[in-house]
Amino acid sequence: MIVYKDLAALIADTERLDKFGTLYINRKKWRADPEHAEILLLIGDDELEDLDEEGNPVLATQNDARYFFDVEIFQNVIDVQREKKEQSFLDDYIHAINYYLENDDFY
C-alpha cells in the first residue's frame, strides 16, 4: 500500500502509478477538504483480494477508505484536464475528478 498525504502528491505521481492499482479514499474527508484528503493506492492480489465481509479490501477498511478510482481511469481524468488546460491548478483537477465521480464521464 502506498499512502498519498494529499491530492497534489498523487497528481505529481500520476504518470508513475501502476495502472493495475486501485485508489481508495475516505469520502467524508474528500467532500470536506479534497486538497488534503489522504489517498491510498492498493496494488496486487495481496492488497486487493483480501476482502472484508462487505467486499472491500481489508487495508482500505482498516484506513476508513472506500473505492475512489481505478488508477487507469484516474490517469485519464487527469490527462483530459491537462489537455483542456495545460496549466491546471489543483481546483481544476478537483472539479474534473468530482465531475467524473458524479457523471461517470469526462467533463
Key phrases:
single chain; 107 residues; alpha+beta; four-stranded antiparallel sheet; 6 helices; 4 strands
Describe this structure in words.
By secondary structure, the chain is of the alpha+beta class. It has one domain. It is 47% helix and 15% strand. The chain is built from six helices and four strands. A four-stranded antiparallel β-sheet has the order 1-3-2-4. Helix 5 packs across helix 6. The chain is globular and about 40 Å long.
Quickly describe the structure.
This protein has 107 residues and is of the alpha+beta class. It is 47% helix and 15% strand.
Q: Which word captures the global form?
A: globular
Q: What count of structural domains?
A: 1
Residue share in helices? 40-55%
Sheet bearing the most strands, described?
4 strands, antiparallel
Instruction: Show unreliable segments.
Output: none
Look at the helices and sheets and give the structural class. alpha+beta
Order of helices and strands: EHEHEHHEHH
Strand adjacency order, main sheet: 1-3-2-4
Q: On the 0-100 scale, what is the average pLDDT? A: 94
Please tell me how large the radius of gyration is: 13 Å
Number of helix segments? 6
> Distance N terminus to C terminus?
30 Å
Query: What's the β-strand tally?
Result: 4
Strand content: 5-15%
